[in-house]
Structure formats: C-alpha cells, structure tokens
Amino acid sequence: MTYNVLVLGAGMISKPLVRYLLDHPTFSVTMASRTVSKAEKIINGHNFGTAVAINISDNTLLERLVSESDLTVSLLPYIYHVKVAKLCIKYKKHLVTTSYVSNEMRSLDKKAKETGVILLNECGLDPGIDHMSAMRIIHEVENNDGKIISFRSTTGALPSYEANNNPFGYKFSWSPRGVLLASRNDAKWLENGKEIFTPGEQLFENYTLEDVPGIGSFENYPNRDSIPYKDIYGLKDSKTVYRGTFRITGWCETLRKIVALGWLNDKPVKGFKGKTFGDLTRFLVGAKETDNLTEKTAKFLNIDTYSTVIKRLEWLGLFSDMKLPENKDNPLDYLNILTFDKMHLDKRERDMIVMYHEFIAKYPSKKEYITSTLVSYGIPYGDSAISRTVALPAAIAVKMILHGLIDLSGVHIPVIPEIYNPILDDLREMGIKFKEKIEPL
Q1: Dihedral through CA 121, CA 10, CA 395, CA 402, nearest 10?
Q2: Could you list the active site residues?
Q3: Residue 331's domain spans which residues?
Q4: What is the pTM for the complete model shown?
Q5: I need a surface site. Which of 115, 135, 162, 409 has the fewest CB within 10 A?
Q6: Considering the domain boundaries, does residue 196 fall inside one?
Q7: How far apart are the first and last CA of the chain?
C-alpha cells in the first residue's frame, strides 16, 4: 500500500523530510509551494513525487490537496497551521508540524479525538528533539525511583567553527526574520523555586557564559516561557526549569544595542524619508547630516566608538550608503534582507547544532548530575544540520503514524515513550545522537 503525504511549504528545512519519504517505497509525496520551482528541485524528478503551485489563500485547492492525502505535513509559517488542521479534521486526515502548539491549535484537541486523527506538533529540533531526549532521561530517572530536582536545556543553531568567519559569529541557515523576531520575545523561567521574568527588550541583558565540555563556551540566554515545561515534562519536584539558546560570545550585547536603536521595529518609522541604511540609523539616533554617525550612534547607545558593537554595526552596513529595499517599509524587514545577505551560510560551509541538557536527579540514597549533549554538523554542498534535525524527526513521525505505530488521536507533542523512543532510535542510526554523562553529587 502506498500512502500519499502532502507537504505544504518548500523552505530551507523541507528537503530532508521529502527525500526521506521518497526513499521509502510506501510513500508518495505531493509538495505544494508558492514557488513551485523550489518544490520541483527538491523532488528532482522522482516517480512518486509531485510539485504543485499553491497560494495558501486558495482555499479550494488547499482543501482538495488535504482531502486527497493520507497525512499533511505543514511547514508553512505557524500562523497557517490551524487553518490546515481544521481541514485535516474535516477530512479525517492526520497532521504533523514542527512548530509550537498555539492555544488555537490546542483548542482543536476534542474535535481531533472525535474524528480519530492525530495533530502532532513540535516534532522538529527545538521544539522536538529537545522534548524527546529530555523525556527519555526524565522517565529513566523516575523508573529508577528518582526525581528530577533541577532541569536546564539549551540549544544553539550556529556556524561550525571553521565557518565562523564574520564579526557576529552567526550565519543564517533558516529564516533570518524568524531569528530576529525571536529576539523580541519575553522570557520566563524557574530558578531555585523563584519565577524570573524578562521583558523582550531586556532579553539580551540576561545571558550567562556557559562551557559545554568538549565543545566550547557560549552565551546562553533564556528562550520564551520555560515554566509550562514543569507540567509538560512532569517535573513536579524541580525547583529550576530553564530553556535557553546558545550563541557565540558577543551576540547578546550586539543584539541588545540593535534593539535599543529600533532596528527590530516591524512598523514603518513615522517621519522617515531617507533612502539608505545609514539614513535610517541617523534618523533613529537623532543625528544631523553634519554629525559623525558613528560617534552619534555610540553616544546614543552609551558605548565607546571603538567598541566591538560599533565595529559590528559598521561591518553589517547600518552606517552605510547602501540603498534600503524598495519593496519593504520597516526596519525589521530591511534588517532581515541585510543580515541574510551578509551572514548567510554558504553551500560550501557547515552549520552546527549544539543541544545540552543538564539534570540534577535525586534518589533515596544519592544525587546525580546528568548531562546529555548533542552535536550535529551539516554536510557541505548538502543538507544543513538545522534542516536535518528539524525535518527528520517529522519524517520519522509521518512513517510511524501511517504505518500504525502511533495509535493516538488529538493534539500531541512528542513527550511519551511510544513517540519519542522510535524517533530517537532512528535518528541515532542516522548519526544524530546524544552523549550522556553521569556524575555523583
């Protein structure tokens, strides 16, 4: 029997998922994308692959494609997932996404259960592999009469060290806009029993330096709201629950100053009539035409003109005569285009995923400090590490659902053994594996 999988979106992480499915003889893939040439390139003439052009607002075509599939994978921007999920419920089709569960998605749980379909979300890297690898250790500790009293988990999508050749220490292997938008998120976490809140504009003031043994030292800043994971992971005894993001040192201070300048504003700047990146920076800091822009910006940010941050902003082009994109109208979108142009991952280069879990486990007669580390590299001229680690868990989940190995309905994330064990085992066979270490406390 051949199952037809509908894949919506042909972005930077879709290829490993599609190729994984096409390499299995029980699947055919219909890939629908706004830019059909991207889908055609990924399918690459495979006999069981079909590329279709679609505008997500074309409800008739979208509904037909969902109804003709056995399962839909939505790799669209997260705002469209609920629209797709409702169609999957209507036609009794399963859904897989790699995005966080929204409140609106969660509200579909009852209807999905009534129709017998699973809406499996957060089945990528972060969220995804982070859930699965953490839950495997949490359940193992609990099965041995222990309890987790502290949990910290941090992930970074970074250039590998040999590709770290720009002043920001970062390269975009996925949507720059997503990275920049995430830089505005509020953050909450639990530290020694105390709830800590950081507003988005102060996010990059709350970083620490952390050494990951055998890998390197990184900046670690909080990722969104960690507190719900106390319940999601069943960490009823844990006084610390923290989820963070790794960056190469220097990132946080620089991004904090970019926020302060107003370059992450996604609304048109009132009164601005300039034409270049330098013009906008000049407007944002209130500099006159006769002022030295570098000096005025440094004074505005209360830093020295020779500081590393100013050097990075200069390198990026924020003081330059480079023309602003004519088809955009706000600082965030201008910056999105500029950063991808200056900081994209070249096809010859490797990216690097670093995921680091830290647990303190308490047993009746002892305590242990447990670490679990994943380091995964991209393939030069091939798939990036980020695309593999996001796409392959979702692809494995598709296989398991359609082969009847996951017999669940409703809205789920991969935090139960029947989902995470086979996915982690398959990933290990593909070289995506964790190294665990246990030390007595």
Answers
A1: 80
A2: 126
A3: 254-343
A4: 0.92
A5: 162
A6: yes
A7: 53
